[in-house]
Amino acid sequence: MEVHLRVQRFHPQVDAEPHWQEYRVEVPEHATVLDALLAARDEQDETLTLRCSCRSHICGSCVMKVNGTSCLGCKTKVSHARKRLAAGEPIRVAPAGNLPVVKDLAVDLEVFFGKVKAIEPYLQPDGPPPEREYLVPNEAMLTVREAMACILCGCCVSECNSLEVEPRFLGPAALAKAWRFTEDPRDAADRHRLEFVSAPGGIWDCTHCFACVEVCPKDVKPMERILELRRRAMEAGFTDNNGARHSQAFADTIAESGWLDETRVLSRSLRGLPELLEWAPVGMRALLRGKMPLRHRRLSGAKQIRAIFAAAQRRSGEPPREHAPGR
Ligand code: SF4
Ligand code: SF4
Ligand code: FES
Q1: Pocket residues for ligand 3 (CB within 6 Å)?
Q2: With 60 as the cut, is the pLDDT of residue 94 above it?
Q3: Which ligand number lies closest to the CA of residue 155?
Q4: What's the whole-number average pLDDT of the chain?
């Protein structure tokens, strides 16, 4: 079958701006987007640059955006990529997002791997090493098995909305890796790891957009790992930060009044005048756009909402939190 590709080309040392180039190639019915790109490179344009190795979604090399969504080129069938396109519309292929382009579809992974290294992705056991090996019962590893499937492809990082605006964010892949070690029964560095990921640029920078969960080719579910890290970090007492305060204030204002009270969430999340002043422009914008009403209508069911919170706390075994009736 003939495949019509529109590929984003960019050579930073030569081009001022990225530009699109079109290719038409013949490939078998079962071909992947990577197969089509390789055919274009081998038969028509040897300057087309891309990265790949296994062609079997194992090595994690071929991250790219196909029709605007991050994926592995070798796991994305041409037939699938065509499904949502109008007749005659080309398949658009662009480099991964949130990573600098080296050339065309090849991106620089140095920052990506730097963040993975920063979470110390190796076991840190306590005490003397065992005589032969660490023995772990199978059931103890069941929870970490999914996260161990990560192939460090970067699809999640490419799609992460938070990284687009905050490049210092550790990102979904590194945080899922951090979770994997906090859950490993052989590792004894939990507190150190939880403290590290609670710092600015860590777990509290995720916006729960689900994009990383949707695009991960190995079902690692990074966002769920991040939420679990948050729970564990708060349980371990790492609550003196804006993220933990925001999370608590979010729940508290709903428990108190039935509403998410943005004004009080903001004031309770931040510490001190300098922080309040720093966020004042955001607050003003939210106020002017009606996103932060100064007063919410009193909800008739607020009492029941407080009862739901109290019941949930009793069930979770958390120490009870008093929720006074709100405004
Ligand atoms: S859920 Fe969080 S980590 Fe995942 S893509 Fe969205 S912002 Fe990034
Ligand atoms: S978590 Fe998933 S998408 Fe992210 S690097 Fe690992 S395998 Fe790739
Ligand atoms: S080439 Fe190895 S994952 Fe695509």
Answers
A1: 52-55, 57-62, 72, 74
A2: yes
A3: 2
A4: 93
